[in-house]
Amino acid sequence: MSEFSMTLNEDQLQIQKWVHDFAENVVRPAAEEWDEREEFPWPIVQQAADIGLYGFEFISQAMLGDPTGLTMPVALEELFWGDAGIGLAIFGSSLAAAGIAGNGTMEQTLEWVPQCYGTPEKIALGAFCVSEPDAGSDVSSLRTRAVYDEAKDEWTLNGTKAWITNGGIADVHVVVATVDPALKGRGQASFIVGPGTPGLSMGQKYKKHGIRASHTSEVVLDDVKIPGANLLGGKEKLDEKIARAHEALKNPSIRSGKQPAMATFEATRPAVGAQAVGVARAAYEYALQYAQERTAFGKPIIMNQSIAFMLADMATQIEAARLMVYRAAWLSGNGGGFVNAEGSMSKLMAGRTAVWVTERAIQILGGYGYTREYPVERWHRDAKIFDIFEGTEQIQQLVISRAISGLRIE
Ligand SMILES: Cc1cc2nc3c(=O)[nH]c(=O)nc-3n(C[C@H](O)[C@H](O)[C@H](O)COP(=O)(O)OP(=O)(O)OC[C@H]3O[C@@H](n4cnc5c(N)ncnc54)[C@H](O)[C@@H]3O)c2cc1C
């Protein structure tokens, strides 16, 4: 267990600079174009793969080789400082990777996580498919069914997934489906649908408010057949979990295990918080410089307390959000776990900070801030996603209120 410290070590400082340089020189200059095109930025992801930022090696080093837990948030803040849409295009496969690592065996993780990234010669993508048209926050109501054929040792998946980052364009789809609907969330499992599997197709591609360079689509599963080995965690573990859950239905004092989707979200929330901090910092830095250059009534607008104090509050809020993200990331990697839902707290705080800071940045730029000539309006559109995905603002509040009260708040 490492001591809690905010001081970044040599490796982390180097990674921070490396990602920042990429964000500044490659991502930011491309951001406006890909936002307007609303297409997946393949050439930029390719460049990230060429330098080793997009790939299995970097992700495994940053996640597994770092006892402090801070390397990922540090890297993500810089990347998303460059642009959130492109940032998610580069980071999206990691949601699938986290779903595999969180629920799969070591063999499954080593087999499938590299396939979520491919190689610089042939990049691949991963997608993590939980949400459905009628089940977003309420993950326990998934309708996608997984049915097992024992004779063939084969699963058949049917259903429609909604809002899936990299959905339909990914090579590896990690699908959370219900095996035993009577058990709701406790009767679900995660499955790998490998490259080119018949029956998986892309449904509608969503036209979004922000992060428009990130691809978001429905994923349709129509009699998708996958081998028994593609059940994450294995059949024996699933059978035990389901038997326990049935026992728990009869006797509520028995614990029946975690829902697979929830386990993944718990681990990834501080990372989403770090992304939000990156967007907030981009807008704050831009507004700070603008306020020093723009004059009104014969002086730079920053010389008005109302503007300077706004910037002071923005800086303070970002600092607070980053500290919460670092602490939650450290807790998730250091065995102690979350006591008061610190992961959810950090994501809630950082998401709100990003929305508020980017809105204030528009205010500081005045009319210019409201146009597409300046990036702050894009950052404001992008920021809103952090209040929505990987658990909405209200779902974080629900998790936190249950943790602090010990009560089943509804
Ligand atoms: C751009 C984008 C990318 C995404 N990527 C992925 C992905 O890769 N994989 C994936 O599986 N999903 C993904 N999602 C889905 C995302 O996680 C869901 O949109 C989110 O969880 C909310 O679900 P919903 O949209 O169905 O809203 P709903 O659950 O219908 O919520 C609607 C409103 O009701 C509130 N609400 C719901 N329940 C409660 C409650 N109990 N108490 C108080 N308020 C409540 C919510 O906070 C919200 O304000 C993505 C979404 C977007 C927009």
CATH topology of the largest domain: Butyryl-CoA Dehydrogenase, subunit A, domain 3
CATH C-level class of the largest domain: Mainly Alpha
What is the strand tally?
9
- The average pLDDT score comes to 94
Could you please describe the fold and organization of this structure?
With 410 residues, the protein is an alpha+beta fold. The protein folds into three domains: 10-116, Orthogonal Bundle (Butyryl-Coa Dehydrogenase, subunit A, domain 1); 126-250, Butyryl-CoA Dehydrogenase, subunit A, domain 2 (Beta Barrel), CATH 2.40.110.10; 260-405, Butyryl-CoA Dehydrogenase, subunit A, domain 3 (Up-down Bundle), CATH 1.20.140.10. It is built from 13 helices and nine strands. The protein has helices at residues 10-37, 42-50, 56-64, 71-82, 84-91, 93-103, 106-112, 235-250, 260-293, 305-333, 342-365, 376-383, 393-405; strands at 126-129, 145-149, 154-165, 172-178, 188-193, 200-205, 216-227, 295-296, 299-300. The strands form three sheets. The protein has a four-stranded antiparallel β-sheet, with no helix packed on it. α9 packs parallel to α11 (342-365). Flavin-adenine dinucleotide (FAD) binds at residues 95, 128-131, 136-138, 163-165, 208, 211, 216, 385, 388-390, 392, 394-395, 398.
Give the key terms.
single chain; 410 residues; alpha+beta; Butyryl-Coa Dehydrogenase, subunit A, domain 1; Butyryl-CoA Dehydrogenase, subunit A, domain 2; Butyryl-CoA Dehydrogenase, subunit A, domain 3; 3 domains; four-stranded antiparallel β-sheet; 13 helices; 14% strand; binds flavin-adenine dinucleotide
